[in-house]
Write a structure and sequence with these properties.
With 341 residues, the protein is an alpha/beta fold. It has a single domain, classed as Alpha-Beta Barrel (TIM Barrel), CATH 3.20.20.140. The strands form 3 sheets. The protein has a 6-stranded parallel beta sheet with strand order 6-7-8-9-10-11. Helix 2 crosses helix 3 and helix 4 packs parallel to helix 5. The N terminus is likely disordered.
Length: 341
C-alpha cells in the first residue's frame, strides 16, 4: 500500500510539472485551472461536467477512514464509467466529494491518467445533512482557523499526496444558515481571497443561497466567486435571476430524464436574459459507496451528452449556446482567480 501510494504521488508530481503553464519573464502568471495532475490552461478543459462524484462514503466524519474500501476495487469499478464519459465527448469532470465524505485525491489522479479525463478535486467541509460530515475539531475552530487548513491544502497539497484542490466545496443545510454553516461559508470566502479558488456550495433553496451572498458581501468577495449548487432546488426562476444579476453562477446539477423539460425551460429563459454565460449543468451522479458490495449501484455520467444535449438542439439551442454552457462557462468558473468586490 505505501509503495503504491508513493508511486502514485511521484507520478502526480511529475505530471504537475509537465502541466505548468509557461510564463514569459516579467509577465503576470498565465490563467490556469488546477487538476489532480497539475495546472492546465483553462481553454484546454473542453466540455466539462461541473458536479459529479466518483466515490462517496456516507458513514460520517467520526467513522470515516481510507481503510473502509479497497483502492484497486474502487479504481476498477469506476474506470469504465469515466472511459464511457470520455467517449461521449466530455474532457473534464469536477469531482465534488469533500473531505470527511470520502475524498481520495490519489484515486482521482490514477483514474485521470487511466481514463484520459481531466479531474478536479476540492478543499472545504460539508455542512449539509445536519452536520454529519463536519469533523469534531471544526466545531471549535474559528473561520480563520478553518480557512488556514484549506489554504494549507492549496499551498502544500492534500495530506502527503502533493495533489492540490481545484475549487472549494462546502455544503449548508436547506433552511436559514446555522452558526456552523455561516462559519464554513465565511471560511470559504477567506480561503477564496487567499487562493482564488471558486466556492462551490451545496445549497438548494433560495433562503440559504442569499444568506451566503450576504456573507460574501461582508467579506468583500464578489458573487462571481460562488456557485449556487443544486439551484434547481429553488422553484422560482426569479430567485435564479436575482442571483445571476448579482453575478453568481447558477448550477442545475441534478439532471435526470424527468428534469429535461424544466432544465431546458430554465436555459431558454436564461438565454433570453443574456445570462447563459452564468449557467452550469451536471448530473450529481456516481458513485462508488464503501461498505456496499462492489461499491453498490453506480449511476453513470453520460445522460447529459448522449440525450440532453441532443434534446436541447431539438428545442432550438445552437452549438454555440451549448459550447457556452459546457465549455466556456466552466473554463471561466474554475480558473484560479480572486474575485473581489
Amino acid at each position: 500500500m505505501k509503495r503504491r501510494n508513493f508511486l502514485v504521488r511521484s507520478a502526480c508530481l511529475v505530471n504537475a510539472a509537465a502541466c505548468l503553464v509557461p510564463v514569459a519573464r516579467g509577465q503576470a502568471a498565465a490563467p490556469f485551472v488546477m487538476t489532480v495532475t497539475g495546472p492546465m490552461k483553462p481553454e484546454s478543459l473542453g466540455p466539462v461536467l461541473s458536479h459529479e462524484h466518483i466515490l462517496v462514503d456516507f458513514v460520517g466524519a467520526d467513522k470515516i477512514s481510507a481503510g473502509r474500501y479497497d483502492f484497486d476495487e474502487a479504481f476498477n469499478v469506476t474506470l469504465p464509467y469515466l472511459k464511457e464519459l470520455k467517449e461521449s465527448g466530455c474532457k473534464t469532470l469536477a469531482e465534488c466529494t469533500p473531505a470527511f465524505l470520502g475524498r481520495d485525491p490519489l484515486l482521482l489522479a490514477r483514474l485521470s491518467r487511466a481514463s484520459g479525463l481531466n479531474l478536479l478535486t476540492n478543499t472545504g467541509y460539508y455542512g449539509a445533512a445536519n452536520d454529519k460530515y463536519i469533523p469534531a475539531f471544526a466545531w471549535e475552530e474559528s473561520a480563520d482557523q478553518l480557512a488556514a487548513r484549506w489554504i494549507r491544502e492549496w499551498e502544500q497539497g492534500i495530506g502527503n499526496t502533493g495533489i492540490k484542490p481545484g475549487f472549494i466545496k462546502i455544503g449548508v443545510d436547506s433552511g436559514s444558515l446555522s452558526e456552523i454553516d455561516s462559519r464554513i461559508v465565511r471560511a470559504a470566502a477567506r480561503t477564496h481571497r487567499h487562493t482564488g479558488l471558486t466556492i462551490m456550495s451545496h445549497t438548494g433553496p433560495a433562503v440559504p443561497a442569499f444568506e451566503q451572498l450576504d456573507i460574501l458581501e461582508e467579506e468583500g468577495i464578489h458573487p462571481s466567486a460562488w456557485i449556487w449548487t443544486h439551484a434547481q432546488g429553488a422553484e422560482d426562476f426569479n430567485d435564479h435571476f436575482k442571483a445571476a444579476d448579482a453575478g453568481a453562477w447558477i448550477a442545475f446539477d441534478g439532471l435526470s430524464r424527468k428534469s429535461f423539460d424544466r432544465y431546458a425551460d430554465f436555459l431558454e429563459v436564461m438565454k433570453e436574459r443574456n445570462q447563459l454565460g452564468q449557467v452550469l449543468l451536471s448530473h450529481d451522479a456516481g458513485w462508488y459507496s464503501p461498505g456496499e458490495k462492489s461499491g453498490g449501484e453506480f449511476r453513470g455520467f453520460t445522460l447529459l451528452f448522449r440525450e440532453f444535449l441532443p434534446y436541447l438542439r431539438e428545442r432550438g439551442f445552437s452549438d454555440e449556446d451549448i459550447a457556452q454552457v459546457m465549455v466556456r462557462n466552466s473554463a471561466t468558473v474554475f480558473t484560479v482567480k480572486p474575485r473581489l468586490s
